[in-house]
Structure formats: C-alpha cells, structure tokens
Amino acid sequence: MKMTFPQQAFLLFLLNLLDALLTIYWVRNGFASEGNHLMASLLDLGDLPFLAVKIAIGALTAFVLWRWKHSPLAKYGLALALMVYIGLMGIHFVTGLSAFGFLSQTTVNNFSIWANNLFA
C-alpha cells in the first residue's frame, strides 16, 4: 500500500515525536546523550523546552512539506527526511537492546562508530 504525501508528512511528524520521547528516556536514564549540541542545551533546561522545540520543528517541517507537496524538492526532501528518521529509529532500537542487556558493550561501540561515521 502506497502512502499519500499527507500520510508521509504525518509519519515524519510521528517519527520526530517518537525520537524526542525516546531521546528524553535514554538521556535521563543514562543510556545515551543527545548528539545535537543545540538540542542538548535545551534538554539541559528541561524536558519540556526540549520537547516543545522538537515538536515545533517537526510540525513546521511537516507543514512546509505538505504545503509545497507538488514540488519535486518537497517530495525528495520528505523521502530523505523519512530515511534519516528511520535510521534514527534503528539507533534507538540498538540503544534499547543495549540498555536492556541484549547487546555487548563491544557491539554497541562498533555500532556507535559506524553510526557516527554515517551521520557525521
């Protein structure tokens, strides 16, 4: 089943929200740190400022993409953003496996090096 553009934009917003919630959980429980320095600063101020900015960014992005949905740039941008967020969900999945003891520290370190090289 092919998703429509508005459905894809909504999925992007949901993945952004899930990323924010998982980031708060992993950081507050000592399993990870926020890689984006600006967002890390907001997280240092508290969960609410971090979540508010993250939701605002996700909503604005989804709206802009939806508004110009007929533009090829918006279509490619949405596809790229979804791929990035799906990759981030993979990182959250590995973080969860590590946090709950299903992965060794060596495996996590190797994955971390790979992820840093991919997203840097």
Q: In angstroms, what separates the terminal alpha carbons?
A: 33 Å
Q: Quick one: biggest sheet?
A: none
- By DSSP, the count of extended strands is 0
Q: How much beta, percentage-wise?
A: under 5%
- Fraction of residues in H or I helices: over 70%
Q: What structural class results from the helix and strand content?
A: mainly alpha
Which residue ranges are poorly predicted, with pLDDT under 50 across at least 5 consecutive positions? none
Molecular shape: globular
Give the helices and strands as they follow along the chain: HHHHH
Overall structural domain count: 1
Report the average pLDDT across residues: 91
Please give the radius of gyration in angstroms. Answer: 16 Å
Polypeptide structure, described:
The protein has 120 residues and is mostly helical. It has one domain (5-119). It is 81% helix and 0% strand. It has five helices and no strands. The radius of gyration is 16 Å and the shape is globular. The N and C termini lie far apart (33 Å). 14% of the residues are buried. The mean pLDDT is 91.
